Amino acid sequence: MFWLLLGIVILMLTSAVLVLVLDNLLAALAASSVVSLALALVFVILRAPDVAMTEAAVGAGLSALILVLALRRLGLVGVGGRRVGEGDDA
Amino acid sequence: MDAYIGPLLFLGAAGLLAIGVVGMLLSNHLFRMVLALVIAEAGVNLMLVLAGYRWDAVAPILQPGVAAQPMVDPIPQALVLTAIVIGVGVQALALTLVIRIREAYGTLDMAEVRARMEVDVAAAGGGEATGSRERPAGGRPLPGPGALPEPPR
After folding, report:
1. What structural domains and CATH numbers belong to chain B?
2. Quick check: A71 and B31 CB within 8 A?
3. How many domains would you assign to chain A?
């Protein structure tokens, strides 16, 4: 159990760092989703199944949806190396 | 190794909180600041659930006909449930502000937005901004060329 939790915590912290260092904002958003999903796993192990359900549905699903819609509104969505700079108006 | 699970998870929660706060303080892009806020929220939620956790207990679900066993504390769990939903609301509000800032100023660079906001606030108050990138406050000398890094685009 300890090693499983160690792996999950390492996954969580590396994705949290990736959120800050990734150049592509869509990839950073996906990394923040990974943090939420790993957190939901930790909640299951901590015997908080209701919190885990909410975290997976709201924290990973709804929040990622809101973020990606805002990203599209801002015109910053770029996939496959092509990145729309934030300087030009979309 | 089971004795180390609590400290490990506390370290993880503190790490998430630290990464989120550092990201909010150091990043110069408004959208990335919102993402860092999400990370910090996750760390706080994990820490709150850990506050009511005990290793030798079951999930706080009462069933008829089953003898009550030691349970983890359900109060922090209920509060965290609320905090998660409110966190998404706060996030949506922050994104709305980011979109409005982008519409007003045409940029998401924090330093530029702050400088132009100071000028706007001072103009609305009928005065002049106390300092700017070109004219530092208090008549301090300008740094030489190359002293300031170029703001990220």
Report:
1. 2-56+73-131 (1.10.287.3510)
2. yes
3. 1
Task: Write out pLDDT tens, residues A29-84.
Answer: 999 999 999 999 999 998 888 999 999 999 889 999 999 999 888 887 765 544 55
Q: Is residue A65 in some structural domain?
A: yes
Q: Which of B2, B4, B9 to mutate to test the interface with A (most CBs of A within 10 A)?
A: B9
pLDDT, tens only, A74-86: 887 765 544 554 4
Q: Which domain holds residue A51?
A: 2-74
Measure in Å the smallest separation between the Cα of A4 and chain B Cα atoms: 10
The answer to whether A66 contacts B87, with C-beta atoms less than 8 Å apart, is: no
Structure tokens at A58: 């709201």
Judged by CB atoms closer than 8 Å, whether chains meet at A55 and B84 is answered as: yes
- What lies within 8 Å, CB to CB, of B23 at 6+ separation is A19, A20, B32, B33, B35, B36, B39, B40
Is A52 inside any structural domain? yes
**pTM of the model as a whole:** 0.81
Task: Give domain status of residue A48, yes or no.
Answer: yes
Examine the pLDDT at B137 and tell me if it is beyond 80: no
For B71, the 3-state DSSP assignment is strand
Residue (of A66, A2, A36) closest to B40 by Cα position: A36
